[in-house]
Design a protein that fits this description.
Blueprint lengths: L6 H4 L6 E13 L3 E8 L2 E8 L5 H6 L7 E10 L7 E12 L17 H6 L1 H4 L3 H23 L3 E2 L5 E2 L11 E4 L2 E5 L4 H12 L1 E9 L12 E10 L3 H22 L1 H7 L11 E3 H10 L12 H11 L3 E8 L16 E9 L2 E8 L4 H10 L8 H7 L6 E7 H8 L21
Parallel strand pairs: 3-5, 6-10, 12-13
Antiparallel strand pairs: 1-2, 1-4, 2-3, 4-5, 7-9, 8-9, 10-11, 11-16, 13-14, 14-15, 15-16
């Protein structure tokens, strides 16, 4: 074994013999005195080698360059002038792999790199403290999502990423050859989670990749993203918003409490409100117009409108609900008294939509009518409608875009920074 402890754990055990392994973050070679800073995923530790103190063969062998892969074994000592007040005095050294080429990225972060270069060499970019912090936060977000929903009595399901039809009726899908048939990468798990609720599971959640063949080139869109979805039976949009509020506040609280070291590297302030304010679509359109931002009722909020609302409301996190029916998905349940409004909602975080959802239409006749209103042929949706003809309960659900949430939590400029290996119009590698 190359190590007995990760560095962060090792620092809790002064005066004990330990083994660490990682990359050479920095090195100062003064001949008879060498300082090597070793880095693993948990932190940095100084290894101090002085002639007469460490074995001669260790001192001679440890001729190193930045990013060489190494293993040291020795006794951890307290030293007030060493980083974090600790240093390792080695008794054994092993060079596990040597860097053979000039690195296109500086893992110390001193020399900045362009985003495209960082993604091209993501395996080097991940060695940087701030980049690593993003994905540690992302991991905790996904786990906190799962943790809260299990606590709330939801069941985790794992739907397919391949479908025989466009699940939302759109054209922006990636076709694939599936044996003798044409199939598609799923653009949404919408159908599958609804079918699970109709099947009697009642409350389900999932974390899934989805694929959208939209030819955009923005800082907030990707062609492959990870969605964190729920669907709940015998519920309306208000019930779904209640769950979304609980889950989101739980995620923010976990990150604030457990990611202090990572947040330091990224410099964001996580503000966790006690409640998430709720505003109707109509209220916010009126508010924009009162503040000299012209917007017609029935339009979607542009990015500029979202930013303006962020300024006006001074709320980092808020809901927009009861949207115009015409601009939401066909399966969104219209209001009983006013068909122009449907019970759909968005959750906005730091001026960007991070989640959307709705109460669904569960009545087959009403669903057929909604399809016809959009110019869609109900016969093409038999696979979908048939499930509702066999006893579908009222239900609602939502989806959080994992990368969008992490992007905003970590104050990133581009959503590609929040995806380990992003896929856009031009990028298929690495």
């Amino acid at each position: 074994m190359n190590r007995t402890h990760y560095i962060a754990e090792a620092k809790k055990n002064p005066n004990e013999k330990i083994g660490i392994a990682g990359w050479v973050h920095d090195v100062r070679d003064l001949g008879k005195l060498k300082f090597v800073i070793v880095r693993d995923r948990t932190g940095l530790l100084q290894v101090t080698m002085k002639k007469g103190i460490v074995p001669d063969d260790v001192l001679a062998a440890a001729t190193l360059n930045k990013e060489d892969v190494v293993s040291f074994e020795g006794v951890l000592k307290e030293n007030k002038i060493a980083p974090d007040g600790m240093e390792l005095i080695p008794e054994r050294f092993e060079l596990l792999n040597k860097v053979e080429r000039k690195l296109p990225i500086d893992p110390t972060g001193v020399i900045p790199s362009e985003l495209d270069t960082r993604i091209d060499f993501r395996y080097l970019d991940l060695r940087k403290k701030d980049t690593a912090a993003v994905f540690k936060v992302k991991s905790l977000v996904a786990n906190a999502f799962r943790e809260k929903l299990l606590e709330l009595g939801f069941l985790e399901i794992h739907p397919s990423a391949i479908t025989g039809a466009a699940t939302e009726g759109g054209a922006d899908v990636f076709p694939i050859q599936y044996f003798e048939n044409r199939a598609y990468l799923v653009q949404s798990p919408q159908l599958y989670k609804q079918l699970a609720v109709i099947g009697g599971f009642d409350r389900v959640f999932m974390t899934v990749p989805v694929f959208r063949a939209e030819k955009h080139n923005t800082t907030t869109h990707l062609n492959e993203i990870v969605q964190m979805d729920i669907e709940m039976g015998f519920a309306d949009h208000l019930d779904a918003m209640d769950v979304l509020e609980k889950v989101t506040l739980h995620i923010l609280t976990k990150v604030e409490k457990e990611m202090g070291h990572e947040l330091e590297a990224l410099s964001p302030d996580i503000d966790v409100p006690e409640k998430v304010p709720r505003h109707t679509y109509t209220e916010l359109v009126e508010l924009l117009n009162k503040n000299n931002y012209k917007m017609e009722w029935g339009e979607d909020f542009s990015k500029e409108a979202e930013k303006k609302l962020y300024e006006i409301l001074s709320e980092e996190l808020y809901f927009i609900y009861d949207w115009p029916t015409a601009i939401r998905a066909f399966y969104s349940m219209p209001d009983e008294k006013d068909k122009k409004i449907c019970h759909a909602f968005d959750l906005i975080y730091r001026g960007l939509e991070i989640s959307s959802g709705a109460k669904r239409i569960h009545l087959p006749a009403l669903l057929e009518e909604a399809l016809k209103t959009r110019g869609l042929d109900p016969n093409s949706f038999d696979f979908y409608l048939n499930a509702f003809r066999m006893g579908a309960p009222p239900h609602a659900g939502w989806s959080i875009g994992l990368e969008r949430l992490v992007m905003k939590m970590c104050n990133l400029e581009n959503i590609r920074e929040a995806m380990l290996f992003p896929r856009d119009r031009t990028r298929l590698h690495p």
